[in-house]
Specification:
- The structure is a homodimer of 310-residue chains.
- With 310 residues, chain A is mainly alpha-helical.
- Chain A has a single domain (70-295), classed as Four Helix Bundle (Hemerythrin (Met), subunit A) (Up-down Bundle), CATH 1.20.120.
- Chain A is 65% helix and 0% strand.
- Chain A has helices at 2-9, 23-26, 57-94, 104-107, 109-126, 139-170, 179-203, 209-245, 261-285, 296-300, 304-307.
- Chain A is globular, with a radius of gyration of 23 Å.
- In chain A, 39% of the residues are buried.
- The A-B interface holds A 18-20, 173-174, 177-180, 182-183, 221, 225, 228-229, 231-232, 235-236, 238-240, 242-243, 256-259, 263, 266-267, 270-271, 274, 277-278, 281-282, 285, 287, 296-297, 300-301 and B 18-20, 173-174, 177-180, 182-183, 221, 224-225, 228-229, 231-232, 235-236, 238-240, 242-243, 256-259, 263, 266-267, 270-271, 274, 277-278, 281-282, 285, 287, 296-297, 300-301.
Chain lengths: 310, 310
């Protein structure tokens, strides 16, 4: 912790290097607070505030980085909202709405809750730490918000699974035989494990810093992999559902192969989910957009790495 | 180029820093050649050779990085071979084999060629540059091999698409209506664009270095996204095929819901494809395993970035 404070205080006053090796280097217009606040939940009050507003070409380069982040973030929010609207509209308008009585109306909760929980809330919860606005602030509230959003996502996903299990059981249909179900259940189970391990390692105060350092890249990588699995499960599920629902000469609907409006809406939902996932994974994979206390160049060249990096 | 040579020659003889800022830092046991050879296709003969074999703790740390890379790489090869074996076995043993006559036997080429081309060859072609064995050598032959593997992958994918279009046309079934087909055709079209742009930008000698620098991260990111799209398309396709092929009371087969051996094989193929994709994306996303001439810390702190980084 001492090292962190010293490091922050010893930053040169001149223009930062093009390598963007600290928060202020990449985002010079954000408010600087004490190092104790940035990256640790044990901090108390801010120690110093400083606002820099430079107009050098390097600053313009950094400003472009902020702008491109927010473009991606807004795209992520917009695509997420569009996914939820599409999946609700599809099941409300074309599939008869919602109930919890073992009927097909109960099944309709499954796509709505999985898309909302396992894709949209999960994706937005994952990119929370990347928002530069949060970087000058105490990490703990953001950590709690990350955990809370992920818990809500997990609860919705589990209820979404219950909806389909109940529906299958009411119809005496076997569960968990399709490839879609294998990948979907794996994604949800890994998500539950990830959440519990995340709580134990990154939120319980007594967990050792060395363990946090060791498991943080694993946590981040598993996070992205779980999102990828969820997208694969959702797309295969939507594809399967459209083939089941839009059969030739069934209840007066046009077959899937004629691309009736419902099919176009379902396909569009799939495309939106894939686009949302790619934007989230893009945000997660860009090292320039990582919260600075976890960026490799901040940890590899300073004693900070030896003391705290979680 | 001069900068690159100076930089290489001016490397300190002492033990490398823990930040792994050059090839030799991360992989001290590889043979050093001239900078002209590493990262540029314009080199001629090797200028100097040097073999270092140190046993400091830092070297052990780096050796662990090499070992973990090769574990991932072998996993990638093993999973790739398993995918090809599974998809061939499934279509040969359970789906009646192969032909090119508009019959279902022609359709069988579709999964085989898409999995082999768009997933396995594509994934292996993508991680070629990450193999440390290639780092001390002239980049051009590896660039040509990368382009050749990707071209073969693209040709197989296009033939795989022709197989299903021909089959549909022979049966008067509409093309490109399902979500699976939308995502699959998008993946193949983007792959074709990526290959042509890659050729024009990274292989045609007259393309400017500044353009290569600008487009390289875009090329890498699109590469990973195309693989993700391909995996989504494959999983939804296998899921759809198993539902179509394993219907109740059809041609004496057990339904999908009873999980007959064919269903288990198909689901296993899907799981193997997802595992293969995650390993490839893991290799691509690890900055420690990037070919050094393109690693951010090599380009951000030296004039090299201003002259050549592709």
């Amino acid at each position: 912790m001492q090292h962190m404070q010293q490091r922050q205080q010893m930053q040169p006053a001149g223009p930062p290097s093009p390598s963007c090796s600290s928060t202020s280097d990449c985002f010079p217009l954000i408010i600087h607070r004490s190092a104790a606040e940035c990256g640790s939940e044990t901090s108390a009050e801010p120690e110093k505030h400083e606002v820099r507003a430079e107009n050098s070409p390097t600053d313009l380069f950094r400003m472009r980085s902020i702008v491109s982040f927010y473009v991606c973030f807004l795209l992520c929010l917009g695509l997420g909202v569009s996914c939820v609207v599409c999946v609700c509209l599809w099941n409300k308008q074309w599939r008869g709405g919602f109930a919890w009585d073992g009927s097909p109306k109960q099944f309709n909760w499954h796509p709505v809750l999985m898309v909302t929980g396992l894709i949209v809330l999960y994706g937005n919860g994952a990119v929370l730490y990347r928002v530069p606005l949060t970087w000058g602030q105490n990490k703990l509230p953001w950590k709690l918000l990350h955990a809370a959003v992920m818990l809500l996502a997990l609860v919705l996903s589990v209820v979404g699974l219950c909806a389909v299990f109940d529906f299958h059981n009411a119809k005496n249909t076997p569960n968990l035989y399709s490839l879609h179900s294998w990948i979907g259940i794996a994604a949800t189970a890994l998500f539950a494990m990830q959440w519990v391990l995340g709580l134990a390692v990154f939120l319980v105060p007594c967990s050792p810093i060395s363990l946090r350092k060791l498991l943080k890249p694993v946590h981040v990588w598993f996070g992205g992999s779980i999102l990828s699995l969820s997208i694969v499960a959702c797309i295969s599920g939507i594809n399967e559902k459209l083939f089941f629902a839009l059969k030739r000469n069934t209840s007066g609907t046009q077959p899937y192969s004629k691309l009736p409006p419902e099919a176009v809406l379902g396909n569009t939902l799939g495309v939106l989910i894939v686009a949302f996932g790619l934007v989230v994974l893009k945000i997660l994979s860009n090292p320039k957009w990582q919260r600075p206390d976890s960026r490799p160049e901040d940890t590899a060249y300073t004693p900070l790495f030896q003391e705290e990096n979680e």
